[in-house]
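Below is the record:
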Amino acid sequence: MSDTMFPQEIDSEAIFGVWRIDAETQDLLKAARSVIATALNGFEARVTRQEEGEATIAALLTDPAERTRVLDTLRQHWRDLFGQGPSEAALDRAAQIGRRHFEVAVQPRHYLALCQLLSRIVTDALIEDPNIDTPQAVDAVGRVVMMDAEVVLGSYYGSLADLVSYEAQSETRTLKDRVSVLEDMAFIDALTGLFNRRYFDRSIAVEISRANREHTPLSLLVCDIDRFKAINDGWGHLVGDRVLKHLAGVLADMGRKTDIVTRFGGEEFCFVLPNTKPEWARLVAERVRARVEAMPIEIENGASLSVTISIGIGTYRTGDTVGQLMLRADEALYRAKRLGRNCVSD
């Protein structure tokens, strides 16, 4: 592999400008440094748990010793990145990591999975700490992780030449296109095109902070497809996927510009309604429920499948954490299921 693929200089000032790594961001990271350091201490345990990433880690490399070296290098790099703050030296390390990944055949999708896990671990820690300015800190961490990933992947693909000079407009546009792709991979559910759980976790924290600061109402709808397992078992997973995409389209069409619609996981969707009182949230929920019920899904040979959903409503109360708001919405959803499904409960 030729060294000419990797330029010797990186325009760190320009890269920081694209990702808004300014003095305010550095201050936010510094204030959260101890929380982030504690979260990183648990990275090794989380990354090797079966349900959260063992398959991804195992897929990194077949050689256990090399896999350990790769993970150790990443952990130390991220510890330095957040412990000392983003810097030119940190960008150089990221470029070296990308080059090493190319040499030992670490696939970009596996590296990005690790980045998503890192963001989730740190975000969870920030949300739980009452002394942290959560929305701003979470946003800062997200930008730093994505900036770091851009450099690592740029080095991996031998395209750091695109990052050296940002003076030409075409080069800036190329970088922004790649940034957009990375953000999509991080926040978009591949099947439905909606925002995913990771985006929800970040957004709900921001909206709770805003509701508390501006004393505005906030409501949360948790929607679950009724008897979805029976649909998968009876019609197959391809039809199940069609049902998920159909519901995603209905929800997206009914949301306002300020609403946040996400696929939370499986057959569960969340609808964040900023500046929405409980009575209005219930009206929205009833409209969504009725629209889904009234729109059967065409499946095959002219056949159609009627689908219903149950919806639980959670309303923000002053001082609520994300967990408390989610718990009330989940409890309301369970009540809707017990009431016979295809209904709304709060």
